[in-house]
Amino acid sequence: MVILVVHHRVADFDAWKSVFDEHEPVRRSHGELEHRIYRDLNDANRVVVHNDFPTREAAQAFLDDPSLREVMGRAGVEGEPGISFIESVERKEYAGAAVT
User: I want to staple 53 with a disulfide (CB 3.0 to 4.6 A). Which of 26, 33, 42, 59 is the partner?
Assistant: First the structure.
């Protein structure tokens, strides 16, 4: 599994989230398995998204999808996103710790 990490600055989180949700079928068509969204505690319009894909090629195909640029503009993404491909090397859960 490959995790596509995207850092965005958005004009308005709620507006961005609505368009992000609308674009789910496109992410899924490229094989997205799961996503997690994070917001900066000091600036709710700074967003990090972890998108899990089965392969780097699937993640890249999503990034290359012609609809993505238009959707980002409509969602209020400001500037160019920061993009990384990472892989999970360890996950450890601690007894009694709530995971959300």
Answer: 59
